[in-house]
Amino acid sequence: MAESDGNSAKRPTIYDLAEIAGTSPSAVSSILNGTWKKRRISEKLAERVSRIAAEQGYAVNLQASLLRRERSRIIGMIVPKYDNRYFGAIAEQFEIMARARGLFPVITCTQRDPDLEFEAARELISYQAECLIVTGATDPDRIGEFCAAAGVRAINLDLPGSNAPSIVSDNFTGARDLTALILSRMERDFGEIRPLWFIGGRSKDHNTAERLRGFRAAHRQIGLSVLPDQIIMPGYSPHKAIAAMATKTLADRSGLFVNSTITLEGVIHWLNEQRHGSGDIRLGCFDWDPFAALLPQNVGMTEQNVPAMLETTFELVETPPTGNVRIEIPCILREISPAAITR
C-alpha cells in the first residue's frame, strides 16, 4: 500500500500497516493493543509499527479491542463541578496520578445532578472502566449498587456511601478549628465574641452536617449557643447564598463561617451590596483559594488535603480493603495574618 497523502477517505487497516512494515497482521495487532511483549516481538519492530500507524493516521477501535483484552486499564471518575478549585484540583491530580500508574483516566462532570451521575457511571462501565471513583455524588449508594451488579469496583471520594469504601476529609475537626480561629480573631480585633453565622451547604449533605457539628462544638467550648436563625443552608450556589442572606440583617462586627468557596462568591457580593466595610466583618471559609485569601475580611481557610486523599484512593484501587471502610483525611488550617486585614 502506498503511503497516504492525508487526502484519502479510506481508513488504513492493520493489514495495510502490516504490508508497509513487512510483518504479519497479528504482530501489528499485538503491538497496537499492547500485548507484543508477551509474544516476544522485538522492541525495534514495535517502534516501527507504532511510527507507521501514527503516520498513516490509524486509530484503534477502542471498544473492539477492549473485548479482546484481559484488562482495559481504564479508571473512571465523576466530579460534580469543574469551576471550583477543590474539584478542579482533584480532577487534574487524579489524571496525573492515574497515568503514572499505567492507567487511563476518564473524567466526566455531572453538575450535582443525581440522574446525570448515574448515567455517567453507566457509560463509564460500558467502556470497560475497571474502577469508578465517585466524587461528591449526591446519591453514591445508587451508583455503588449498580457498580456491584456490574462487577466493577467503586470508591467514594469527598462524600461517603454505605456500600463502597469512602475517602473523605475530616470535616468535623476542620470546621471546629476554623470556627475557633474566627472567634478568637473577633475577640482580638473587636474585644468581644458573639456567635457566628453559618452560611452555605445542604442540610442532608454529610459534609455540611459534619462541618455544622464542628461549628457548634467550637461555640460550646467557649460557652456560646448558636441560634437556629444563624444557620443558613440554601445550597452551594452563589445566587442562592445572595437570596438567602437578603432576608437577614447582619450587624456590624459580625463573624461568618462560609461553607465553600462557591458560596463565598455570593457572600462577598452580598456584603459589597450592603456596603459592609472590610473592618467590621470577620469571616473564614471551608476550602482554600489563594485569591480568596486576599479578601480583607478573611481570617482563615480550611484546605482539604487533595494529594493525601488521592494517594489513599489509589492505595485502595491497588489493594482493595476488606469491607466498606471510611477513611478521614485531616484538613490543613491556613490562618491569614492579622496584618493582611485593613480595619
Sequence-ordered SSE layout with sheet pairings:
Elements: H1 14-21, H2 25-32, H3 43-56, H4 62-67, E1 74-79, H5 85-100, E2 104-109, H6 114-126, E3 131-135, H7 140-150, E4 153-157, E5 166-169, H8 171-190, E6 197-199, H9 206-221, E7 231-232, H10 238-245, E8 254-258, H11 261-273, E9 281-286, E10 298-303, H12 306-318, E11 326-329, E12 332-335
Parallel strand pairs: 1-2, 1-3, 3-4, 4-5, 5-11, 6-7, 6-8, 8-9, 9-10
Antiparallel strand pairs: 10-12
Helix pairs in contact: 1-2, 1-3, 5-12, 6-7, 8-9, 10-11
State the main characteristics:
434 Repressor (Amino-terminal Domain), 343 residues, 3 domains, 12 helices, 6-stranded parallel sheet, 6-stranded mixed sheet, Rossmann fold, 43% helix, alpha/beta, elongated
- Strand proportion: 15-25%
Number of helices: 12
**What is the overall silhouette?**
elongated
Q: What is the CATH class name of the largest domain?
A: Alpha Beta
CATH superfamily of the largest domain: Response regulator
Helix content: 40-55%
| Overall tally of domains | 3
Strand count: 12
The CATH topology of the largest domain is Rossmann fold
**Between the first and last Cα atoms, what is the distance in angstroms?**
77 Å
What Rg is obtained from the alpha carbons, in whole angstroms? 26 Å
CATH architectural label of the largest domain? 3-Layer(aba) Sandwich
Low-pLDDT segments:
1-9
**Main sheet characteristics:** 6 strands, parallel
Class per helix and strand makeup: alpha/beta
**Secondary-structure element string:** HHHHEHEHEHEEHEHEHEHEEHEE
| Mean pLDDT score | 88
Placed side by side, the strands forming the largest sheet appear as 2-1-3-4-5-11
